[in-house]
Write a structure and sequence with these properties.
The protein has a single domain, classed as Porin, CATH 2.40.160.10. Helices cover 7% and strands 53% of the residues.
Length: 411
Amino acid sequence: MDILSKFFIYADLSLKDDKLKLASVFLFASSCFFSSLSYADDVVEESLTQKNRIDLGGAIRMRFDYDPDRDIRKLSFDTAIVNLDFYYDQFSGHVEHRILGGAYPYTYTDHIGDINFTKKAYLEYTVDKEQAIQVGLNQVPIGFQPYYTSTVIESIAYIAGIEDLYRLGVKYDYKNENHEFLAAYYAANPWQGKGTSRGTYYSNQIVSADDSLENGTHYEEKDALAVQYNYTQKADHWISNYGVSGYYSKLKSKSDFDENNGERKVIGLHYGLNNDRFSLKLISLYNHIDTPFTQTTLGSYDGTFNIANQGVISSIDINYKIPKLNIKDINDFNVYGHYSRYDKSKKDFLDSQQFVLGSAFTFKKNIYIATEWLFGKNNPYIGGSDYGQSLAIGGSNQWENQVNINIGYYF
């Protein structure tokens, strides 16, 4: 895996009780090594370096935050990452865990590791050259996989619990020439990590609100179905991808005062175009959470906030690699621009927007540096706007901005 791919993997290795989870995954995976299984005749051909091995890797990331409006100028620890991958014949396993805390913006915790959660933990069985099955905590197939953008912050669709979403279930992937079909069933949210909030997850999940969140809801998402179809077209040096996604889940009320259940529906269309230097990603998503309320509580990264129940999310991302700047120890230098917004159906709710200009490169293959200038309006992740309500009723309704620099050492 190249360093650019590794940078966007947010894996975690939990302390104490979570070690038992990691151990159980590893022991189950190891048992597959010795099981007497009859494999399909048409086995996927892999290089010797891809077979029968265990990889242990990770990263340590730092961050610099600059926000002139809030007088923030901080260089601090960001994340520790641990990745565990194994490969044995047609089986593979993948575990990623992320460790935070003890530094900005988690200065309310005392130590590194006071906040930690699992991103993914699944087993994959490659049936043949065209088919694969994943079981466990894997990515829900909605839109581009794995990300809609080139940015570190990702798009508003991530904040809304759609992009880069991982849940517990089983996923089937079928590829044949230019066509790909994915179908998945997800029984539940991931297991909770460690933290101070009910939102101790990597992905934004529908959860019960923290007691301090105004107008919070209390739902549990379960029995979700997801389908996706992709068509890839090649012409000269260009590759185009057309895709459609659908997602449906049930919401079970966890409130002692309201027993009304609900459901969630997401429908998306995406288009991608790229060659060796240029890439373009366009996606539009209709989001509808059907409950007696006008907003629903989501949670991740040790916090909970509300989202408007209905609206359209749109995102565009453009990336360009500049080969002339690949000198000496600098590689993969690229610049990018991203814009996304949430147009909310309820008239009284203020629309949320996000605009990012950034650049990134690798240094000596092990160090990744990304610099991003972030602009946000009614956005809980940018500029200190109202975290709890910005994606629902709205925040200050003013453009806020800040600069983030991420520096990661990967091993």
